[in-house]
Write a structure and sequence with these properties.
The chain is α+β, with helices and mostly antiparallel strands and 728 residues long. Helices cover 16% and strands 32% of the residues.
Length: 728
Amino acid sequence: MHYEKIVFSPSFYTKISNHKTTYIMSAIQFFRRALLVSVVFSFIFTLSNCREDEPTPSGLGQLDISPSEIIVNTNALINAHVHVAPGVQISGENLNLTVYKISANGQQTEVGTLADDGDLYYNGDEIKGDNIYSGRIYVTETNPGTIELIAKGEMLNSKGEAVSAESAKATITVYADINGADMKALFDVQNDMVTQLNTYLGGNQNNAPNAVTQLLQWVQNQPEVEWATMDNGSSSIEIRYKSGLMGGAVVSLEDDNGYVDTRGGFALTSGIQEDNNRGNTAKIPVSQQTRGKNYSGIASGKTIEDFDPNLIGNRNVFIYAPFEASWKNNERPHIINILDSIQCGDFKITTYVNQEATVARIAEMMTYGMVVLSTHGSGGGKALLTGEIADTTLDAYQTYKPLLQGASPKMGISKNMTISKQGAVVNKGDVYKLYAAYISDLAGTFPQSVILANFCGSDQTPPLKDAFIGKGAKTYFGYTETVNGGFCVAVARDVFTTLAKDRKKTGEVSKINTSDPQAPNATLKIEGSADMRYAFELVNGNFEKGMLGWTKAGDGRVISQLGSLDTGEGLYMGIISTGLGYTTETGSISQTFTVPNNANTLDLEWNFLSEEFCEYIGSSYQDWFEVVLKSEEFGVETLLSRSVDGIAAEFEATGPTEDNPEGLPGNLTGVSPDVVFDQGGVFMTGWQSESFDISSYRNKCVTLTLRSSDVGDSIYDTAILLDDVAIK
């Protein structure tokens, strides 16, 4: 049930049912009939009190900030967001929130505002009226230490009275700038490691185990080094410099074709790897890989109470493979082939390979149900390597400076080098590595995800495993030792076949507790839940558990309101669009499930809002909303298809004419300026109820897709609100 606010008098507000715009007109006419005033008042009173038992939250919620570390004497940009809880109505001047900085002595200073105005440029706010307040705040600190930020404002309590409210505090750590000499010392030592290793090898790859041991001793004796260790039985070296910076090296062995088959150094007791006679020579050297700006994920703020804790959150798959060009064995094509072969699967795969696998991309994994990390490990479960070259001349380095510091740095820099069959060291460059603290500090929570940590020593020590599970991942697969790529591929095939193709649980993966046939015989371990599986029933159709259960592509999300449009009985609703805010891709959400044997109908509610009304009615610019059901038996069936022109005809709206150059909305409802997108002038259909006969699909596996599409251009946006998707 959905309600909209209608003003009957300056002091009287209520909500009436709005499944269709005509209901509003009928209710108003009904209200005007004097003989039935008492009946109407009774009806309205009932509706206006349907939420009376829901207490108004006492605060504004969490203040999310990014970054949470800055450098002294820099004008640092902080992106801040408050996800105001459903049911909370902000009041006061301009309906904004004010952000204050709390210094060490407790003094509070105003530093900026947060607004829910849809101003992407000035505030970083994507959608007006969605109850997410955003701001771009600049902070400059002259001394190292910590400061706190807090958002304050006014909200209406259950009696309609304005009361003061504030968010939880967010902490920013302020670091001194990195001394240029300290960073130079790190690069100098790690460049000298290449020279020293070449000397110890003596032109013979067979000398590699002894040469790496000698190299460790050399590093430990350098005056700039506080300590240096080598992973248990591996050639991966971790270094802490006296400056506090973390460095290191991963040393791998090449075969005759220049490929590597271990993921985090080679096993010192395993001997030399054999040539697999692979003829493929296409490579993208790490030294030529590109960098990207930091990606800042926004936590959904949704609760997961009552959602089945054993369901993987979605069918989005994230594959991160920064060194695929140099791998002898790659799991990515195997995973794709398995998922593509499933008739009823609907898996959406995102891959970042070679030059695309930057630090920034790692943050994106927080929204994926399955995450595969095909990379080098370091520290035996303490860190993983990215493909991003550490270059102090780039803007990204300025962002990373605070993350490289502290008692437990979130990032470090490792030398990636290989030893050729001829016994020569190949310098692949210094790349950034990410420690467990980096994972723990990422924005958001994993959607009950499964993590396949396909790198050396990923479960040798607890830090990375604990970080992933602490962020909401439910199952973590990792290795006890240095692992070879062939075993990683076999494990990946087993995991995806078991979960996606055979519809089994994580604990039924056959490779669990089996060992790599090649030395040092790493064992695959499972941490966390052994009961995770993909859902094959329709779940979370009312979006009360956020996006859990829904696989998305492009702009698909969950919101609590849009301007004055709320969700009625529930707290949340889905939204797909042709690209609102930062998102430029058209959106779709989908679920794959087996239709129950007693199912009759598929029901849903939708509300189509567009800037293309009324100016582009009758033009080539047409945005669409479609409901599609796909099955192996019946192929693709479009249950519902609505375009701008089709909706205009249904609601008697017309495009521009000589007499009416702006067109006429007919029975469409104008919602601007309360709701605006890129261009303004938004009209909507109001909530529409649909019911589709799906009795012919009983006991069949189907994929339900709700999608928006754009014909012509993406300048004028369209959004579709969704709710109450159910099988009856």
